Each structure stands twice: as structure tokens, then as C-alpha cells.
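Hi R.,

Here's the chain you asked about this morning:
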Amino acid sequence: MIVALGTDHAGFALKATVVDAIRRLGHDVLDCGATTIDPTDDYPDFAAQVARAVLAGRAERGVLLCGTGVGASVAANKFRGIRSALCHDTFSARQGVEDDAMNVLTLGARVIGPALAEELVRAFLAAEFSGAERHRRRLEKVQRFEAEGR
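And here is the predicted structure, written out as C-alpha cells:
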């Protein structure tokens, strides 16, 4: 699987850990930046790059890092077809994919440490959408909200 990864300056400290975790799990990383720490960069720019990579099919999933994870997740969710969630526990990282077809995991680098980040990435990438009728039904409702702009 190809995983698009984006981080602003506040998430940069976790980037190497997340890249290593993705690669150790046998996946490839599409680096959407940042490549250096720039305190003037903005998380929406990296969220957009990750979202566009996933939507264009250049990556199957995405991971975003910012200080709290909140801003990057909000920005990513503005793209039709992106289902990003901020997760700080492995149950949510797994269940978000299995039940809700989450395709972008967002992590708060100032909230969690490297060991938990690795666990979250592992849970996210190992999970598959269940396809259960109730989950498909709910996903279709969310997709209608997107289409209608509500």
C-alpha cells in the first residue's frame, strides 16, 4: 500500500517515526512534506497535498501530523471523499477504518509520543472496511451529505 504522509512544523518531530513504522509494515511512503522545519508553514497546505494524493489514487491512505491533529483533520475533511479522523487510541484508529471507511489518520504530535504513534499507524493500516450492510448504509448517508453540501 502507498501511504501519503504530510506534516507541518509542529508535527515534524514525529515524521521519522511514522515513516519508519509505515515502511516496517511493508508499505511505501509518498512524502507530501514538509521536508524541513519551517515555523511559518501551514497545516492546510499539507492536508491538501495528502487529500489530493488519496483522491487521485496516488496513495491508498494518508497520515497527517500537526501539533494537535485537529486543524489538519478539519482541513482534510473539506475534500469530498476524504474521511479523516484524529485518533489517540488504537481502537478508534482501527474502528474508524472498519466501520467508517476512514482513509486519513491524523495524529497530534504534541499530544502523543512516538510509541503510541507507531501503534496507531499499525492499527490504521492493518484495518479494512468491513463492508457490513449497516456500515455501507451509514457511509452512503455521509456521502450524500457531501454531495448535497450539508
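One quick note: Residues 133-148 form the longest helix (16 residues).

Cheers,
M.
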